[in-house]
UniProtKB/TrEMBL annotation:
Residues 119-208 form the FecR protein domain. The keyword Nucleotidyltransferase does not apply. Residues 254-320 form the Protein FecR C-terminal domain. InterPro entries: FecR (IPR006860), FecR_C (IPR032508), Ferrdict_sens_TM (IPR012373). It comes from Mucilaginibacter straminoryzae. The chain crosses the membrane at residues 81-99. GO terms for molecular function: sigma factor antagonist activity. Keywords: Membrane, Transmembrane, Transmembrane helix. Gene3D superfamilies: 2.60.120.1440, 3.55.50.30. This is FecR domain-containing protein. It holds the Pfam family FecR.
Amino acid sequence: MQHTNRHTELLQKYMDNACTQEEFGELMELIKNSPNPEAFDQAMKAFWDKSGEKDLPDGIEWSKMQRKIKLRLWALRRTKVKLAFATVILAVFCIGYLWKNRTAEVTAPVAYVTQHSLPGKTRVIVLADGSKITLNANSELTYPQVFNAKTREVYLKGEAYFEVAHKTHQPFIIHSGKIKTQVLGTTFTVSAYAADQPHNVTVLTGKVAVKDEDSKELVFLTRGQSATTEKGAAKFKLSALKTPEDAIAWLDDKLMFDNTDLKTVALKLGNKYGAHIVVSEHLAHQRITAVFQGQSLPGILNAITRLTRSGYKANDNTYTLY
């Protein structure tokens, strides 16, 4: 019994990376000089039970792992390669230990954080991997506290500018409505305020893959390229910006409209200020070119009505242009 307890003690120290050189040598000698594989059964079983309480997937359990270890050990014993015998028993045991504990980690609930930006305000969020996300006004980002999966996945409602930390083996994925955007490390914007509005991805640096989860269409975008969903359309509307930085003018509290119809202007203003803006059918297709910076919603609407020779009325949080 005392001999078996020493097996267990040394195995525990080895797995905890707390084994001295002398203790490691002792462990090797105990394994090499064991008269048969069963001599180590009790020590390994004790350590297996201690390594985690969750069941492994696909019915993997100690009895099955034990049989595999014994087969490997008996094969090595017949070759009389004692060093390989000692190495393999530890390697197999370590794999079982890491596999069991990794499974417990993967199946553990992921802790998510949700952050919001207020109407008319932006908000900067720095994630655990060093990625920086700036939320446009009236937006929401949900993300895990720690990225411990094979991918880094976040969920966006609204609009945001992403500066993603490069990680070759851990792609960054943004879920925004029916659009999924995947990158390794780059800068781009994603706009997805409401299901009935166009969703957009615009790249400033690097390359991204954008997929429509409904139609399964996949496009790749590089600097200055933009993909937009259109209601009822099975394909993205692709376009190119002469100045990609215009897509993030909102970082400086700017609203830029270049020959933009009032229906689209109303959507952008409503998203930014968290308001409902209605445009009469007569005005919906009228276009304006203007830049607004640091102005209130009533101030912008006053300017628009002067440009279009129209008027507006307010009722609580609803504004009607006529």
